[in-house]
Amino acid sequence: MSGNPRISVVIAAYSPGDGFDRVMASLDSQTLPQDEFETIVVDDGSPDDTFDRLSALAASRPNMRVERIENSGWPSRPRNVGTDLARAPYVLYVDHDDKLYPDALRRLAEYADETGADVVSAKEQQTRSVWWGTMPFRNGNVANAVPGGDIHQLMPMIPHKLYRRAFLAEHGIRFPEGKRQLWEDIFFNVAAWRHAKVVSLLADTPVYLWVLTDKNNSSSYGPGGKEFWNRLDVLLEFIDRTLDGEDFARARQDEFLHQWRGRALKRFSKLCGTADDERPTRSLPRAQSVLERYVPEEQDPLLGVIAWPHTVLVRAGRVDQLGDLWRHEQKVQARFTGSDVRWDGGVLEGRVEARWVGADGRPLRLIERDGRIYRDLPADIAAPLPPRSLDVTDTLDSFVLRVGAHSRTEYVTWDAEVDGTTVWERLAPGVVTPVSRGTFRADPERLAGGRPLVESVWELSGIVHWSDTARSQGVKVKIPAMPALPARRAAVAYTNKAGTLGIDLNGASRNVVGDGGLHGGRAQGTIDAFVLPVPKVQTWGSVRLPVEIRFEPRRGDAHLVAGTLVTDPNHPRLEAGGAVPPGRYLLSFRAEGGVERLGRWSAHVTRRGAVVLHDTHLRPRRSTIPGLQAEARRIAGGVRRRVLRWLGR
User: Given the DSSP bridges, would you call strands 90-95 and 64-68 parallel, antiparallel or unpaired?
Assistant: First the structure.
């Protein structure tokens, strides 16, 4: 490759199979010109035809280079080799079966230049989770997170970030090499935080899609074996050594608490709650050793409402109670209910309420005693726990209510504007429950980081964070379809099949014309120029939206008719016209920018060109016996007419 690339995309590959096609398709689709980035793929000694496939791809791509090394057993060494080969100012690490969003590289390079970043942590999504990794980005872009001293701004600590190559070289930041180097990305990012002067957060553009598969390495180890605990010891020692001194005291403590709470305790508690063998008892001393070295008992209150009592049970060696507590907490969910949903000036608004419930659907119970509020746990679990570990009185400010729009095709989640609060709601004397309530505003023209949402079907989901835990669910509503034209494009707010609030922006599930209040009967005008009123379509100002109408006969080719959705406050309507032969047709409508969707409507075009609309779903059904009688009369009449015609010859 000639020239000076702006970004080097480094990919460690090991027998990726068809997953690599996904990576290449996303690279080929980048808005950044191909001659402004290079792709470096390092094959980690794949035993199949991977190297030949990669070489064939590179032969047709001047900006792609393929190297092969002896198998190292982990992505670390191929990433390091790729970094050494890189020529661009910035390096982006991509896994061999994930993908980049189309504007990822252009926006990353632009933003890194703008902020002078050593590291850019960008918006990443995951195929199996609506809310994964979104918390640091919920308040928008951050030019530099370093002065705040919060290392959690670098989370999630995956390797799919943009790094200044000279910065990595200056400080010798490398991925730890060797077979099965668990959490190599944590080592890398902790070192980056230690030396970075500028860590920027890019929230306004989706950059990376982590495609979860059954081949993910993280599923191949857990806290039931020595490898997990041995590697955790190495990681914590590295954190202690790297984040040394007073300047990094906060980051060091935060990382110790986070690694214990999120990496060790969460998995060990699950092991205790699911294993039916001796692994929990065998691993208990290792867990207690981590606590003794890195989490002093006086820091237990910093762990949160869930991790604190779990940690107390680990310290006390109560493996059975820890498993019981884990199983008890798995039954707790959150229910999100929407109400008063409406379009207002092109913005979808409504109220949302989040309630914590148990497996029986009843509200989560908290006990009020002597002016304090405590978690209500079964007596056998609560017995070894000090009351202060169950005291949640002062956690009310830790509740965060969020509502987001999530695309099931793009896997992107965008936070809506939410004004919410949480209260302890009284259920009975001495019994309360947390309830979060708020209003949300979802503007399709600004929701995507200040830009319009892409044409897709979006589902509104809620999440409520409480201290160190969170629960999420789709926002349940019961509303009629509400078509609208915010900013001159088609949108329908509706209740989907799962009972969740959705916004259809491309006609894949709902149709702005079909849901617009069409009535059966004869249309004004003829097929050459006819008008269909759509009184339910909401608009703000005068709008003219092109709409294509498809007349689909039972046999033969379909006929396309051009139309325009004309909206004003007094007379929203569809004006259309074209050449369609007499006959009966199923109708579908496709608004500009959307996909074609067969509606429930059909039409009869008469010999004189009249258009008669029928609602195929709402026509009254006849009972079986009268229907059979009518069919018999029709057949008999046909036979009688044919006989009379034959006799008249």
Answer: unpaired
Rounded Cα distance, 251 and 631, in Å = 81
pLDDT given at position 598: 61
Rg (CA), the chain: 31
Share of the chain above pLDDT 90, in %: 87
Backbone angles phi, psi at 100, to 5 degrees: -105, 145
CA atoms of 579 and 529, how far apart (whole Å): 10
The structure tokens listed for 391 are: 């005291």
Alpha carbon separation from 544 to 486, 490, 553 (Å, rounded): 12, 11, 28
| Selection from 239, 211, 228 nearest residue 267 by Cα | 228
DSSP, collapsed to helix, strand or coil, labels residue 523 as strand
Residue 301's pLDDT is what?
Answer: 97
Euclidean distance between CA atoms 551 and 566, whole angstroms: 20
Q: What is the pLDDT of residue 645?
A: 64
Q: CB neighbours of 566 closer than 8 A, spacing ≥ 6?
A: 542, 543, 544, 572, 573, 574, 575
CB 452 within 8 A of CB 460: no
User: Can you read off the two tokens belonging to residue 145?
Assistant: 């997170």
Q: In the 3-class helix/strand/coil scheme, how is 598-637 assigned residue by residue? A: EEEEEEEECCCCEEEEEECCCCCCCCHHHHHHHHHHHHHH
Give the three-state DSSP class for 556.
Answer: coil
Q: Which pLDDT band holds residue 525 (cuts at 50, 70, 90)?
A: very high
Coil vs helix vs strand at 195: helix
pTM: 0.91
Buried b or exposed e, range 230-269, using 16+ CB within 10 angstroms:
eebeebbebbeebbeeeebeebbbbbbbbbbbebbbbbbb
Dihedral over Cα of 368, 369, 374, 377: its sign:
negative
How does residue 619 score in pLDDT terms, banded at 50, 70 and 90? very low
Give 220's pLDDT tier (boundaries 50, 70, 90): low
